[in-house]
Every structure is written in structure tokens, then in C-alpha cells.
Amino acid sequence: IMNPPCGRCSKPVYPTEKINCLDKYWHKGCFSCEVCKMALSMTNYKGFEKKPYCSMHYPKTSFTIVTDTPENLRLKQQTMLNSQALYKEDFEKSKGKGFSVVADTPEMQRLKKTQDQISNIKYHEEFEKSKVRSDAPPPENRQDEQPANPERCIQPAGQVLPATVAPPGGGRRFQALYSYTATEADEVSLQEGDLILDVEPIDEGWMFGCNQRTGQKGMLPANYVRPV
Q: What are phi and psi of 117, to 5 degrees?
């Protein structure tokens, strides 16, 4: 009996290595995906026009080859980043906390910058909401809010008020334990030792205050400062 030719290499197929599939005979080693050449078996192949494919490259079910253009890959990645940002935001809301800077990994920092516009808007939204939230400190820890006094934030560089003298008009004071570089337009940069005036807690992760050295007002990470 003459041995039939292989569907891939056309050489004779002997009974010991014969696979009979898709109306053809194949060497076991020749029965592979048309696209990626991955070795296939009778249990995992998909046939199309009498040719074998792996499930990834089967023309009827996967559009991977067609759609994975650089533009589509970029869109896919952007969508993924968006969903990660929204997940982070939802997670923060569910906890009622700000996003701790200590937990910020380089990956999250990069994500934060990628989502600059989104997070900027959300920060402002959250900040506005936080003004009417009920999780402020109890009254005994919070002094009555005073009208802003411009003199508090125009001390000459290098001049630090003695810790024992409260600034005019009250308000809580903190000192920076570490340097911090602002990553958003509404944040304040810190240098170790900076004095922060008129501090108001926003939530467990963030505060609002005025850097006496620079005169800048804005948000700062709570775990970078300590009360004085």
C-alpha cells in the first residue's frame, strides 16, 4: 500500500506517525498552526478551509492579526490606564481616604501623570466635596476658622516663627519632615523643615495649608508633615 503524502510537506506519511485530519494525512511534527507553526494535536486544533490553526490564530474567531495595529494597541493601553485610574479613584472613595504618597509606586506615579487632566478635575471635585464632609476632626481639636491673613504667608525666606509663638489669627501649624515635589497644579512643594501655616485636614491622606517659606497655598501629603 502506498503511503499518502503529508498535507504540510508532501512527503510520504508512514502509519506510525500518521494523523488523519481535515481530509488529509499529516506527520505529527507537520500538524501545526498555519500562522505561528505551533504544534497541534487532535484535541486543540481548529480547522479552517482544511488547514489547521491554533485557537489564537483561527480566522473565524480571532481578529488579533487585523486589529493589533500600533494605533489600536495604543488605544487599548490608554483604555487600560483609564480603567486603572478609575479603579484607584473608586477604591479611594470606598475607603474615604486620600491616596497615600508613601504607597505611591513609580508605576502609579507614571499613571498619575498619564491621567493628568482626569485626576486634576477629580482632585478639585473631591476637594470641594471634602469641604462639606462630616469627617473633620472633633471641635476641640479644631480652632475657629479665621479670615485669611495675607501677612502670615509673606515672611522673608529663612525667617521661621518660634514654635512657641502662635501665628496671628490662630490656625494649625505643621513642619515638613521630608521634601516633597508637587505633582499637580494644586499641590504645594515642601523642603525638609518648612513651616506650614493654616493647615486644614482634607481627609486622612491630604491636608491644605500655606508654605511659609514660599507663600504657596495648596494640598500636601499628611504623612510628610508633623504638628508643631
A: -65, -45
- Chain CA centroid to CA 47, Å: 41
Query: For the chain, how long is the longest CA-to-CA vector?
Result: 107
Phi, psi of 155 (to 5 degrees): -65, 140
State the pTM of this model: 0.28
User: Is 146 within 8 Å of 171 (Cβ atoms)?
Assistant: yes
What are the backbone dihedrals phi and psi of residue 218, each rounded to the nearest 5 degrees, phi first? 165, -165
CA nearest to 215, candidates 162, 165, 164, 151: 151
- The single residue listed with the C-alpha cell 482626569 is 118
Write out the three cell numbers for 70.
Answer: 500600533
- Mind listing the pLDDT tens digit for each residue in 75-114? 777 777 777 777 777 777 766 655 454 456 667 666 666 5
